Amino acid sequence: MKRVSFAEFGGPDVLHLEGAEEPHAGPGQIRIAVRAAGVNPVDWRIREGQFQKVRPVVLPAGVGQDASGVVDEVGEGVEGVEVGDHVFGRGSSTYAEFALLSAWARMPEGLTFEEAAGYPSVVETALRIIRQAGVQSGQTLLVSGGSGGVGSAVLQIARDRGITVIGTAGAANQDYLRSLGALATTYGEGWVERVRQLGHVDAALDLAGSGVIRELVELTGDPQKVISIADLDAPEHGVRYSGVTGNVPEALAEAVGLIARGKLHIPVEKSYTLAEAAAAHIDSRAGHTRGRRVIVV
Q: Is the pTM of this model over 0.85?
């Protein structure tokens, strides 16, 4: 089979599409014939070696953790899924023709493989950080970097829970934020005052890592009310960095329910081939994403 891998840490040029042995499902796993793989910022952060101190990677390594596809192998002890089922979920080395998943759910009716690949990690992350922020119905949540995958999920899930959301993004994505139910404003000079004009902020999420931690603490009045998934230096300001995955099967089940009720939709902004994985990482790192980027196999 073919898979994208890297043998050294570095820029996107270290990614190579190579032949590899097919993986086989162990206990508690399924193998899928991958139809699409989600592109997440964590993918290029791992490739750059940013997490080596806390989450060491043995080289050479595959890339990717989210995927959708067709089940073609079921591991020991796995129940409720059969060969031929269409599923989406989380695993490892998903930029490949075949991949192992450790958490999965059947794809909701009407969802394409490309769309489904974009949900697993972003929905789990969104649910986790909303919970960690402690924001409740009737309160206001500020989302810095609201137009990407996690931001898209946060805005919709929070609105479904009766939480008012304020989102920041580039000028081109203002209407998109509003379409998700957010009060929208641009980042850049004067953004803190623009947020204040939109209302009191009870909690805030930093999704872009654009150096706004101090301002988010200022707006909430308490570093404990700010959560970051993108700024590794957040703890220096008393702000929690959330990087430990929660319960993925529960998150997938909730995602299925939200999608079925028409309360969650994350568009695919752009698709890439396996051979274009480096370009996908370049675009993901540049930000300004509206929804998700995926690799189609």
A: yes
Task: Output the CA–CA distances (angstroms, integers) from residue 277 to 13, 45, 141, in the order listed.
Answer: 10, 14, 34
| Residue 71: both structure tokens together | 């089940």
Give residues with Cβ within 8 angstroms of 24, minimum separation 6: 31, 73, 100
The values of phi and psi at residue 15, to 5°, are -80, 135
Dihedral sign for Cα atoms in the order 126, 94, 176, 250 = negative
Instruction: Say if CB 167 and CB 182 are below 8 A apart.
Output: yes
**Which pLDDT tens digit goes with each residue over 179-237?**
999 999 999 999 999 999 999 999 999 999 889 999 999 999 999 999 999 998 999 99
Burial class (CB in 10 A: 0-12, 13-18, 19+), 27: exposed
Distance CA 297, CA 22 (A): 15
> Which residues does 138 contact at the CB level (< 8 Å), separation at least 6?
162, 163, 164
Q: Which residues of 38-76 are buried (b: 16+ CB within 10 A; e: fewer)?
A: bbbbbbbbbbbeeeeeeeeeeeeebbbbbbbbbbebbbe
